[in-house]
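Bench notes, afternoon.
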Amino acid sequence: HETGDVRGEGNILYNLSLDVYKTGRIDDAFRLAEQSLEIFERLGDPNFVIVFEKLADWRSAKNKSDGWVTK
């Protein structure tokens, strides 16, 4: 926040979410990625699509592991 590099903050949050996801802290990873998504959406940054698709992948994996079936 201090430097005003909001895009950089979005990148850091997303990269952190990837690392946190790998540790199994899924809810924390979702929270971080969603914060990143909000930043990229607000900026109109094309990284929005990357984060959006990753969240969709994670949701799909979570739904399968929870026994949810979506059609």
